Amino acid sequence: MFSAMVQRIREVLVFLFLAIVSKVTGVKPIFSRGGFSLPFEEEEAYCLSWRLGVETNNVRGWRTVPSKCLCHIENYMTGGQYERDLELIVEQILGYADGIFLSGDGLDAWILDVDDTCLSNLLYYRGKRYGCDPYDPPAFKAWAMKGVCTAVPAAQGLFVKLVDMGFKVFLITGRDEETLGKPTTENLHNLGFFGYERLIMRTKANKGQGAVIFKSGVRKQLEGEGYRIWGNVGDQWTDLQGESLGNRTFKIPNPMYFVP
């Protein structure tokens, strides 16, 4: 761990040195990671474009973050911009919700995804180089079993306000109910997620279903029960695709992984 910390400090110092060289001399220095070299400004520009492509769903089916974008994604997720983006999105959500006239029959619904919408897996993905390492199902399951996720910044406040407004909030997740039901429920409650209408997880009947099919089926069932879905919030495009999407969808940023 100590050697890894020393290496990280060295990388940061090199990063700062190259930035100063570029500013003083006007020469674009080479910043290299993993054997791939590009002028630093070009590399950063590429990673900005890649992240935009991910968030606009133009880049699809990707398995890992490009290794040359590790520093960019780390800086985005931990340097403050991620939180600022979340605050803007929550502001838009609440502005929209404030304009909805609730019927009073208890059937005005709102849907929130769980992983990296309500519960943050940032600490886990830090150990996976912020998505540069391939997805590891057993390791993620072991992490989720611990029930130690923190809340996604601004998400807990959004949840409380939606409940206070009178919406029936449904939490829908692809996590397996049989093995992860208890730790997920306890994790949510420990972070102040009380008062939701239902936590809906995968059962044996949903095994093998893609995210779009699974979540479409859940939403369609809720509409069959009479619920009006006013809003749908998720960090993956597959949370916001398919049938019975609701009146309006909101995408939470997540450049660390892609769920098909």
UniProtKB/TrEMBL annotation:
<dbReference type="InterPro" id="IPR010028">
    <property type="entry name" value="Acid_phosphatase_pln"/>
</dbReference>
<dbReference type="Pfam" id="PF03767">
    <property type="entry name" value="Acid_phosphat_B"/>
</dbReference>
<dbReference type="InterPro" id="IPR005519">
    <property type="entry name" value="Acid_phosphat_B-like"/>
</dbReference>
<comment type="function">
    <text>May function as somatic storage protein during early seedling development.</text>
</comment>
<dbReference type="InterPro" id="IPR014403">
    <property type="entry name" value="APS1/VSP"/>
</dbReference>
<keyword id="KW-0732">Signal</keyword>
<comment type="similarity">
    <text>Belongs to the APS1/VSP family.</text>
</comment>
<dbReference type="InterPro" id="IPR023214">
    <property type="entry name" value="HAD_sf"/>
</dbReference>
<keyword id="KW-0325">Glycoprotein</keyword>
<feature type="signal peptide">
    <location>
        <begin position="1"/>
        <end position="26"/>
    </location>
</feature>
<keyword id="KW-0758">Storage protein</keyword>
<protein>
    <submittedName>
        <fullName>Acid phosphatase 1</fullName>
    </submittedName>
</protein>
<dbReference type="InterPro" id="IPR036412">
    <property type="entry name" value="HAD-like_sf"/>
</dbReference>
